[in-house]
User: Which sequence fits this backbone?
């Protein structure tokens, strides 16, 4: 999908969420707009991308701006878009080939799902190599695509590597290429590799790499903070129960006659009123619903000028 417009930005997250709710492995492969398309479209793309990340298992992003970094600056517009489409096609074809094609060391859908389920950002690359260093060359191209969104294999916690070559592929070649990728990944990374031999392939090696788990460091940090708070809470409760007292929160209103600090750092004494002053200020009201109280209320119903006349009489 293309982020920034209407269909890709609005519909893709909804469709992806439905697929994921059905238990389907959901992979998003999207492009981001050029910078010259304006800030508004970029904001829409960023919002749609954040929504899509929450709805998919794995997401692969290709910024259109990276097309400007290709080696050949004289590429036509159609050729540049074709290069971006090739990356998208290779990503989809690479996943499908892993699932469909049986290999000498087989990689099936369960392996793909293990690496890609709920892992966030992903690197998905395919490289081809020929000659003496064909396996190393193919592996380097697979993990260093110039069009991917600043994602490398460094720190990945889940990696799937698949080699497709002729029957003459050597163990040394596979070892060199796989070791190069393994050294860049997380030390505890889950690495799955497979080998597919094709009799029709002679001097060429294709390497497909799926690397995921780049967002696990942030998730682990949040989990550590939550676990730390949860481990401290029982200790505080145990200390309070052992001491038999619970600290009371200090009142923000100072008592009468106590100096209080103002906002400007100035102190003011709150005057304490005497009880007789308070009683003089309070209006006199009947304290019981007796006859006197009813009589007083009846008198209050008479206008003031009539009451003054009655008093003079």
Assistant:
């Amino acid at each position: 999908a293309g982020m920034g417009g209407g269909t890709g930005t609005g519909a893709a997250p909804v469709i992806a969420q439905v697929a994921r709710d059905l238990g389907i492995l959901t992979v998003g492969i999207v492009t981001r707009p050029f910078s010259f398309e304006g800030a508004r479209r970029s904001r829409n793309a960023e919002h749609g991308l954040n929504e899509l990340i929450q709805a998919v298992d794995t997401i692969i992003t290709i910024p259109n701006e990276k097309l400007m970094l290709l080696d050949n600056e004289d590429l036509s517009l159609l050729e540049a878009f074709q290069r971006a489409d090739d990356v998208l096609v290779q990503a989809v074809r690479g996943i499908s080939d892993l699932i469909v094609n049986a290999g000498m060391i087989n990689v099936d859908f369960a392996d793909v799902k293990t690496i890609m389920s709920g892992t966030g950002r992903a690197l998905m690359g395919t490289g081809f190599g020929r000659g003496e260093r064909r396996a190393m060359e193919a592996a380097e191209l697979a993990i260093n695509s110039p069009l991917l969104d600043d994602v490398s294999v460094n720190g990945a916690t889940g990696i799937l590597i698949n080699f497709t070559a002729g029957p003459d592929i050597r163990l040394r070649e596979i070892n060199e290429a796989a070791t190069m990728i393994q050294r860049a990944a997380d030390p505890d990374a889950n690495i799955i590799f497979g080998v597919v031999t094709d009799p029709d392939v002679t001097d060429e090696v294709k390497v497909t790499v799926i690397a995921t788990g780049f967002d696990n460091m942030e998730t682990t940090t949040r989990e550590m903070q939550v676990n730390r708070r949860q481990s401290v809470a029982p200790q505080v409760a145990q200390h309070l129960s052992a001491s038999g007292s619970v600290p009371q929160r200090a009142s923000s209103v100072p008592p009468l006659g106590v100096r209080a600090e103002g906002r400007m750092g100035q102190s003011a004494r709150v005057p304490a009123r005497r009880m007789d002053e308070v009683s003089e200020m309070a209006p006199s009201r009947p304290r019981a619903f007796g006859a006197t109280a009813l009589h007083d209320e009846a008198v209050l119903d008479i206008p003031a000028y009539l009451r003054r006349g009655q008093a003079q009489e």
